[in-house]
Amino acid sequence: MAYLMGVDIGTSGVKTVLFDTEGAQIASASAEYPLYQPQNGWAEQDPDDWWEGAAHTIREAIEKAGIDPKAICGVGLSGQMHGLVMLDKSGAPLRRSIIWCDGRTGEECREITRLVGKERLIEITANPALTGFTAGKILWVRKHEPDIYAACRHILLPKDYIRYKLTGAFATEVSDASGMNLLDVPHRRWSQEVLEKLDIDGVLLGKMYESCEVTGEITKEAAMATGLAAGTPVVGGAGDNAAAAVGTGVVSAGKAFTTLGTSGVIFAHSDQVSIDPKGRVHTFCHAVPGAWTLMSCTLSAGLSLKWFKDGFFAAEAQAAAGLGIDVYDILNRQAARAPIGSNRLLFLPYLMGERSPLLDADARGAFIGLSAMHTKYDMLRAVMEGVTFSQRQCLDVLRELGVAPKHMLACGGGARSPFWRQMLADVYGCEVATIASSPESPALGAALLAGTGAGIYKSVPEACAQVIRENAPLPPNGADGPAYAPYYALYCKLYPALQESFGALASL
Questions:
Q1: What is this structure's pTM?
Q2: Are strands 97-98 and 44-45 parallel, antiparallel or unpaired?
Q3: Phi, then psi, of 178 in degrees rounded to 5
Q4: How far apart are CA 120 and CA 107, in angstroms?
Q5: How far apart, in whole angstroms, are the C-alpha atoms of residue 295 and residue 287?
Q6: Using only C-alpha atoms, what is the Rg of the chain?
Q7: Which residue ranges form the domains of the chain, and what is each CATH number?
Q8: Residue 130: helix, strand or coil by DSSP?
Q9: How does pLDDT run across 26-80, given as a tens digit for each residue?
Q10: Burial of 187 (0-12, 13-18, 19+ CB in 10 A)
Q11: Catalytic residues
Q12: Label partner for 171 (CA 20 to 30 A): which of 84, 154, 249, 329?
């Protein structure tokens, strides 16, 4: 029996999963690590915490499975994107990693835009300069910690530090590198123009690979630390969303997924480069060679529902705990008590500002149309509808750019709700399905990339065709789609009407 391993370096912890070549999960292990916030709006993690967690969970998964490590044919890596890892000449971290949700680099993003030019930066890197992306973090360290910058010899992304510890290779791959503001995304290579204008030495950056290419082999030292067999190949892997796309089978034209987690993501496959000149959605290289993706990110999807649950449904949460059921099952039934349109009540889900498609950190949440007749059940449904409308806005941008998914998968905690999935289907106007295979989609995607690199599968799409299985989709309800339409049209008018007020409120 042959096995494949996926190692997913998340923000809250690392998860290592062992699969057989049919995609069945054999064993898994996870470990948490801390997040450091030395100042308000900053977010850092220690790369060696990632490595300690990865080494521990790899060994634990192998031990749980009770298999010969030599039966593992390949290792794939997935992880949080955008984080900055700076190493000295000996390969040791010079400082904690500044990770994706750190917001300190606003000034540096403005500098990048000035040096490269707003339009030119989007033409090359397919994205505007964003505080989450890596280039701004590099410039911040150079300005504020010049001694650390002067000692830096290697710049890696989070999962690529784990690759270095496993193989000794300083390398990355196209999907994760797309989120650095340094990659020539249409040509899948580092942009010499951007590097020169930002005065960053390209020698610092890792060697570029496609996601399913072998980047190195497990060293003897890593074998001792993890229990893997020395010589096991390690492939490029992918950023978390690209890995999740492989793990859900979104590897061909017309396919996309919507994630309703803390944030909301729509991720669509494209066989051609399609860039939004307004920067409303991201274009990245896909983990599938020769393909790209368009991706939106809204900041408060499931977070909006959790916020409302915590504030208004304490009694239901207590009852659910006593009954041993999920409180969200109760919320779904309660939301269904209100009609489409929530009795003429709309919700803007901008609790943390907004990224896609608004790019406005000052935007804030709002209920519009609130009256004395409304109950918390109307408000609950309005929250779910508002999150759904925000995803539809992003989907409309993808359609405007010529990427029109005909088949949508739903992922994340919100996808467990048939009520919310039906709402997505009705508002999107397309079928919405879920995956029947492993729920660990980023780790599974990384493992399938490893299997492709090891020669078990001929290609990434073939790997997905062999492994990924879907549950029966929910089709749109013919009557409900038109019923949502006027509320969605009004929703789209609200942010432009309130934008100036949001900015004024932020300045008070």
A1: 0.91
A2: antiparallel
A3: -60, -25
A4: 19
A5: 13
A6: 23
A7: 3-247+440-467 (3.30.420.40), 302-434+478-507 (3.30.420.40)
A8: coil
A9: 999 999 999 999 998 899 999 999 999 999 999 999 999 999 999 999 999 999 9
A10: exposed
A11: 240
A12: 249
Six token digits for residue 113: 């835009």
Query: Position 16: which residue type?
Result: T
Residues 6+ apart with CB under 8 A from 435: 247, 248, 249, 409, 411, 441, 468, 469, 470, 471
Name which of 29, 379, 413 is nearest 227 in CA terms.
Answer: 29
Q: Can you spell out the DSSP letters for 284-319?
A: EE-SSTT-EEEEEEES-SHHHHHHHHHHH-HHHHHH
pLDDT tens per residue, range 138-165: 999 999 999 999 999 999 999 999 999 9
Which residues is 268 bridged to in the sheet?
256, 294
* Residue listed under structure tokens 């997935």: 78
Other beta carbons within 10 Å of 149: 18
Helices (H), 336-467: 376-400, 418-428, 441-453, 460-467
Question: What does the alpha-carbon distance between residue 115 and residue 121 come to, in Å, rounded to a whole number?
Answer: 9
Tokens of 501: 């007020």
Amino acid 456: pLDDT: 98
- The length of the chain is 508
Q: What angle do CA 481, 487, 489 make, to 5 degrees?
A: 95
DSSP for 427-450 reads: HHTS-EE-BSS-S-HHHHHHHHHH
Place of tokens 């289907």: 425
Query: What single letter denotes the amino acid at residue 83?
Result: G
* Residue ranges for the chain with pLDDT beneath 50: none
Q: How far apart are CA 155 and CA 477, in angstroms?
A: 50
Which is it for the CA torsion 193, 194, 196, 202, positive or negative?
Answer: negative
Cβ-contact 233, 454 below 8 angstroms: yes
Identity (one letter) of the amino acid at 82? H
